[in-house]
Write a structure and sequence with these properties.
By secondary structure, the chain is α+β, with helices and mostly antiparallel strands. It contains ten helices and ten strands. It folds into three domains: about 120 residues, Acyl-CoA dehydrogenase/oxidase, N-terminal domain (Butyryl-Coa Dehydrogenase, subunit A, domain 1, Orthogonal Bundle); about 100 residues, Beta Barrel (Butyryl-CoA Dehydrogenase, subunit A, domain 2); about 150 residues, Butyryl-CoA Dehydrogenase, subunit A, domain 3, CATH 1.20.140. Strands 1-4-5-8 form a four-stranded mixed beta sheet. A four-stranded antiparallel beta sheet has the order 2-3-7-6, covered by helices on one side. It has a two-stranded antiparallel sheet with strand order 9-10. A hairpin with a 5-residue loop joins β4 and β5. It starts with about 30 loop residues before the first helix and ends in a 6-residue tail after the last helix. Bound molecules: flavin-adenine dinucleotide (FAD). The site of flavin-adenine dinucleotide (FAD) has 23 residues, from β1, β3, α9 and α10.
Amino acid sequence: MQATTLTPLRNKVDSFESPDFYCIDDLLTAEHKLVRSAVRNFVKREITPIVEEYAQRAEFPMQLVPKFGQIGVFGATIPTEYGGGGLDQISYGLMTQEIERGDSGMRSCVSVQSSLVMYPIYTFGTEEQRKKYLPRLAKGEMLGCFGLTEANHGSDPGSMETNFIERSDYYLLNGSKLWITNAPIADIAIVWARNDQGKIRGLIIERGMEGFSTSEIKNKWSLRTSSTGELVFQDVQVPKENILPEAYGLKSALKCLEQARYGICWGALGAAMECYEVARRYALERIQFNRPIASYQLVQKKLAEMLTDITQAQLLCWRLGTLKNDDKATNAQISLAKRNNVEMAQRVASHARQILGAMGISGEYPIMRHIMNLESVSTYEGTHDIQLLILGAEITGMPAFK
Ligand code: FAD
């Protein structure tokens, strides 16, 4: 018997258009729409045709890094004098939405580079550090990672053990960081460590520094296109000019996470939109009992709930973006949107999987990849429950997690 062959995803036309049930496009500027369309076309051209293959192989498509640089998604909100895009927060959000529509692993790479590497260098760094690193990071000539989590300290990074002591002309760094996006392929790492006085500071560690090594975490079922790993520091002599002078205490690291969580709010929306659109088209074409399955009430209920979910999340993102543009978005507001939108995307992806039946688990469609990816998105940058506890603390004034 001959095996059935599935049409590879790369041979399919990616005709994605985002749903816009509440005419949210009317709230966007011409620049926002231009940015979105440029990144959407990039995803159709560069990510869709290869992503399934890379996910199956659990490999990061390294060739995309300079291309991300060329289309300006690295450091989109960083001022142009440092090589950034000088764009507003809604443009940045739309970029992450489009990229995660393609794949969460790709968006993770962009979020880390923009929000967790370029942002701290720009915000807490010296002028020399900004000039040395930001233009190269923006062009994708250099890739960065962000080391906060440790094997024994995830939700509670304030208890970190990685530390450095001051010597006459360098800092001596020891410890390790686990679950670090881009770690195996990064040229630099923003590393959070405790000094002699127990204060948490940020350091820029460069690949090649003696005693600094990285390794890759294998066998992930989620974010398979993303390279995740460990950072190990054994008596690394870090030049004193590599400390971020304005980063004091855990709050500086958390400020970076706030930027990244903001990108996730939009990114999760992108993943949900892709699942919805794929399911809608599939339901219109798939015939069972002589009728398209889209004509059955139970399928329509799922599609209606998916669109309702997506529309609410779109409004949340847009409003959060305007607050962020005015520098008014609070940590708790961002936590609310991250938690809501990731859970929303998981719900939408799960409905999509059901609508596609057996095809829902096939790599011919992107649904299962999104479902698996969203498991990580729900955990990193603060778990689903930690976001809830941040909100709880805001509501009651009583932090439940400290
Ligand atoms: P734990 O902290 O052990 O939590 C386990 C469970 O306990 C969770 O459900 C949590 O919500 C719950 N819990 C913990 N404390 C409380 C409490 N007080 N009250 C109620 N419930 C609680 N980190 C980085 O620094 N840089 C990166 O680039 C990075 N990339 C990542 C990429 C991937 C693919 C993944 C999976 C993780 C990444 N992380 C990264 C780490 C991530 O941020 C942590 O996994 C996350 O903060 C949770 O930590 P943990 O896994 O140790 O879980």
